[in-house]
Amino acid sequence: MKDNGNDRVCLAASRRVREPSSPEELVRAVLDEKMEAITTVLCNSHGARSNLYEDVMAMVERSLLAIALRRNDFVKCRAADYLGINRNTFQKKVLKYGLDKEGR
User: What SS3 state is found at 1?
Assistant: First the structure.
């Protein structure tokens, strides 16, 4: 059977989704795609109890804390305000993830 490219075009068109209408939709679409890949990599298929939720949430939390620190020149008070969390809570999380050593 000769492939003239039409089948691929039709298949690609059928997979298209509508363009996001807001920044929130765009972020959600990108996040969904990336989370699908992340969960595939982390998924435990050996029948043991999965820690997938805890692992992913820790990665997200650590990334947010690191971003907040970088965007606020490693000033913890400002980074906590940036995330909208209490500075003591922020400090505990920074220590938990070993981020207190970065930026020095």
Answer: coil
